[in-house]
Amino acid sequence: MKRDSGARWFAAAGMLLAVSLLLPWWEITMHAPQYPEGLHVTTWFFTVTGDVHEVDGLNHYIGFMPLAKVAMLERQAAFVVGPLFTILLLLAVPLRTRWSALLALPAATLPAVFFVDLAVWLQYAGHHLDPHAALSSSVAPWTPNIFGSGGVGQFHTDSAFGIGFYLASLASIAAIMAIANRVKNMDAA
């Protein structure tokens, strides 16, 4: 029987995904005259950290929802989804069936799902401002940038994906390679 190189790809994907869960996935920095050092918010796979309290205080004036209310279901599910997808990848390592490739599909799609979910939440939050907020009439609905420079009011923003997202993307590629190798080897057997 041919050596199954898919096993190495599954293992690499599992390790990359496991490490990615411990690192930042998305970050935004907001600069304004009164915040020359900027306010920083970091989205990890399981939580949001940084100047959350200060940003929420400022967002309150324009009616932007508190960050704790953004993607609540996703953040709760993350505690199950992240480890589960990692375990599924590692369970696929010793299996030598075509169907073991199905174990990698969730991890293979995770970065794309994160990207789409983040984009949807940024659009939703920026277009559902509280009309009763003190400065609601001074800011038109907008979508915060998912990547690159942007801004609202007097704030200039810079956002970027973090190393965790990029490692998860590499895990996704490795999972796809594992699936392709596993299916190819099973067809040749």
Task: Provide structural commentary.
With 189 residues, this protein is α+β, with helices and mostly antiparallel strands. The chain has one domain. The protein has five helices and five strands. It has a five-stranded antiparallel sheet. A hairpin with a 2-residue loop joins strand 4 and strand 5 (155-161). It is elongated and about 65 Å long. 27% of the residues are buried.
Brief characterization of the structure:
The chain is an alpha+beta fold and 189 residues long.
Structural class: alpha+beta
Q: State the strand order across the main sheet.
A: 3-2-1-5-4
Report the oligomer. Answer: single chain
How many helices? The count is: 5
Helix content: 40-55%
Cα distance, first to last residue? 7 Å
Beta-strand share of residues:
15-25%
Element-by-element helix/strand order: HEEEHHHEEH
Q: How many structural domains can be distinguished in the coordinates? A: 1
Number of strands: 5
Low-confidence stretches: none
Radius of gyration: 20 Å
User: Which geometry do the CA atoms define?
Assistant: elongated
Mean pLDDT equals 92
Q: What's the topology here?
A:
Elements: H1 6-20, E1 24-32, E2 35-44, E3 48-50, H2 52-62, H3 72-92, H4 105-127, E4 148-152, E5 155-161, H5 163-188
Antiparallel strand pairs: 1-2, 1-5, 2-3, 4-5
Helix pairs in contact: 1-3, 1-5, 4-5
